[in-house]
Amino acid sequence: MAANPPGDISDANFLTVAEVAAMMRVSKMTVYRLVHNGDLAAVRVGRSFRVRQEDADEYIRRSFYDAG
After folding, report:
1. How confident is the model over 37-60, as pLDDT tens digits?
2. 3-state DSSP: the chain helix, strand, coil percent, rounded to 5?
3. Which residue in 7, 9, 16, 55 could disulfide with 41, CB within 3.0 to 4.6 Å?
4. Are 13 and 52 in contact (CB under 8 A)?
């Protein structure tokens, strides 16, 4: 079976804003702010937003701060 071409999101796992907020342990409003500011990629579905699991994970990876 052939691999999916680059940019193909047919196998993507999408999360709701509430699921992203729970994963990050922040409020839903914080997630909405991240989406509206362009800091977190999201897809608009009707009146809702969906965030790919990969994008949420990448945002968290980029946000690590070394305090030590």
Report:
1. 999 999 999 999 999 999 999 999
2. 40, 15, 45
3. 55
4. yes
For residue 19, what are its two tokens?
Answer: 């699921």
Size of the chain in residues: 68
How far is 17 from 20, CA to CA, in rounded Å? 5
Q: Say which DSSP state 46 is in.
A: T
20, amino acid identity: V
Pair 35, 20: CB distance under 8 Å: no
- Structure pTM? 0.80
Q: Which residues have C-beta within 8 Å of that of residue 24, sequence separation ≥ 6? A: 30, 31, 56, 60
| Longest distance between any two alpha carbons in the chain, whole Å | 47
Q: Which residues pair with 51 in a beta bridge?
A: 15
